[in-house]
Amino acid sequence: MKPSKMTKLLIRFCIAAAVSVPAQASESNLLSISTQKTNEASAQETGGFGAGLIVGAVLGGPPGAIIGAAGGSWLGHHDTQRTNAIAAKSAELSQKENQITKLETELSVTENELANTISRLNADRRLATMDFLKNGLTTTVYFRSGEVDLPSQNADKLYQLARLLKDFPELHVQMEGHTDIRGDVEYNQHLSEMRIETVQSVLEDAGLPEQRIHCNSYGEAQAMASEGDNENYVFDRRVSIHVSLITTS
Q1: Which of 51, 139, 141, 213 gives a 20 to 30 Å CA spacing to 84?
Q2: Which pLDDT tens digit goes with each residue over 189-247?
Q3: Cα–Cα distance measured from residue 192 to residue 215, given in angstroms and rounded to the nearest whole number
Q4: Are 129 and 168 in contact (CB under 8 A)?
Q5: How large is the greatest C-alpha to C-alpha distance in the chain, in angstroms?
Q6: CATH number of 134-245
């Protein structure tokens, strides 16, 4: 079926409207940036109107042209809304990225400040410890009669002492082993040596180098409790640990 004269006229009108859109868009370049955005949106809607008009005219004659024009105008307006939404999301994303960059910078500054604070605290702790130990420190580990094993609480204290000494190579460790007067002299000498080895083993297991530990075993030679003084024998069954600063001549 051949198109009617009315249909042909509508098609010509639509083509003329569609062709005029670029010209209108070109002329709008002389306006401000805000006016350009308005004209671009208008151009999109006009283009949609013209395209819809043509398609509607070809497919459905004059009624189709009217319906097609309305649909094309809606599509053009919808495209403008989508473009504006994309631009808004891009701006929001850029803002979030700037916020993240700012937070990362602040975090880096905080980490540096924390590291400096820890360094100062460690330096102060070291000075305080060295000042505390300048006159030396003595601690004593006691044993049960005839035994060389350490009670668990004494082992824990020795581990703590060893961890402290590891950080201060300027400190010298001197250990002395003793027994009470009961028993054979040779047996007591060996017993004091075994007690020294027990304490030394705990210190070394905690990380204190062997070369920093110096030992002497005295057996019963330096016992303080007299024969029959059962209450004070416990103070003779000991290993004394003396910590002092290494002095250089």
Answers
A1: 51
A2: 999 999 999 999 999 999 899 888 999 999 999 999 988 888 899 999 999 999 988 76
A3: 11
A4: yes
A5: 140
A6: 3.30.1330.60
Q: How far is CA 105 from CA 15, 186, 238, in A?
A: 58, 71, 58
Backbone φ/ψ region at 207: left (φ over 0), alpha (ψ -120 to 50), beta: left
Instruction: Tell me if 65 sits within 8 A of 52, measured CB to CB.
Output: no
Query: Tokens standing for 78?
Result: 């919808």
Q: Do the Cβ atoms of 59 and 14 come closer than 8 Å? A: no
Query: Any idea where the domains of the chain sit in the sequence?
Result: 5-91, 134-245
Eight-state DSSP code of residue 224: -
Per-residue tokens: 123: 């330096």
Q: What H or E segment, with its residue span, contains residue 42?
A: helix 33-132
**DSSP characters for 100-164?**
HHHHHHHHHHHHHHHHHHHHHHHHHHHHHHHHHTTT-EEEEEE--TT--PPPHHHHHHHHHHHHH
CA distance 240 to 199: 10
Whole-prediction pTM: 0.51
CA distance 72 to 68: 6
